[in-house]
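Risk register update: the risk that structure generation would not scale has been downgraded. Supporting records follow, first protein first.
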Amino acid sequence: MGIVLLSFFWGLARLPLADGIGLSFVAPLFALLLAALLLGERIQRQAIWASLAGIAGVVIIMAGQFGQGNYTGDALLGTVAVLASTVFYAYNLILSRRQALVAKPVEIMLFQNLCVAAVLLPAAPWLAVALPGNLWLPLAGVTALSLSGQFLMSWSYARAEAQYLIPTEYSAFIWAIVFGWLFFDEAATWTTLAGAALIVASCLIASRSNPKLAEPIEAAV
């Protein structure tokens, strides 16, 4: 997650929000393959179709954006950085499933954030800056949202196979479109909306599969 955060946010600073999030959704397809290789899951047909539909949605969106021909060199570097982060994030999803079967969500959150801190701390003497007083409240809000997401993800991965949950990652793109429009005045094109429709369809396809639920264990309660 430390590598994911560094590469993803570095790239996101150089791309529109919807584009950055869209590129990151190559990760679920990688994670689906890793679920079969590392977790021994038998990937169901619905999960495969769901991931393909989600990827098709991302391709449509990115084709519309890159077709405008107004990308700079920084945007290209940002694209590479986001794509690199997807590889590590895909593996993180697999680790989330493994961890959720043997540990409580709060335990997972604690050690994951300790590891992220260990990755970032060596750079602190050179790159750390004092946070302005007016940003402490927004930072607390971001922290609360992040920890809530970590908790819910850990809780979910303890109760269903990765192949069932991974395609739902695509739904975050819908929020990227909405928030990009609300907070950054980034208008959604017809290609973005068409791709978003495919992403929603991928989540609906995934929800119709019949995953093998995780065995109830005390640590996951």
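Supporting record for the second protein:
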Amino acid sequence: MDSALRDLLDELYADGVAFDATQNDRLLTRRNLEPASAGLLWSLVQIAGVRNAIEIGTSNGYSTIWLADALTRTGGRLTSVDVAPDPAAEANLVRAGRRETVRLHRGDGGRFLAGLPDACVDLLFLDAERTEYPRWWPHPLRVLRPGGVMAIDNVLSHPTEVAGFLSLLDDQPGIEGRTIDIGKGLHLAWRDLRL
């Protein structure tokens, strides 16, 4: 990643932390992914050669830019879905020079996933309202291709809110998963290539 883009991401992260500190309503905060978690996803996209990525939870585009930058290296594309994206998301993507890599979609994450064909997603990143994820079942798993990866943020900071969803994943044959103690906890689950 070039230094100008890294500087922009540092600025957006600091701005998000400062903005969140002024909000009394959690739903109005930006809740940006932590830089270490973003860096792990950035690396994972390139290691796995991800071409089709879906992000549920755009906010101001901080994690979107990280993913889009990695996808420019693999020739991939990102669709970022949010029920109410921050108006700054598109402007931030333009500032980052990554707008052409991203399709911004306004809508419910579960409905969006329900409309996708089976096994079409290389990477699914869930960073939205955690208590909604079980309602989206089975679509988050159904859309993953063999070898595809699902990343779920906040599994250590909000374990009770993700417990039901992680239990659904654990009960599936051919799905492996590990929680990484990074940021607020990032759970990675992947579909066995042989299935």
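The beta strands are 52-56, 77-82, 102-106, 121-126, 144-153, 175-180, 186-191. On this basis the risk owner (M.S.) recommends closing the item.
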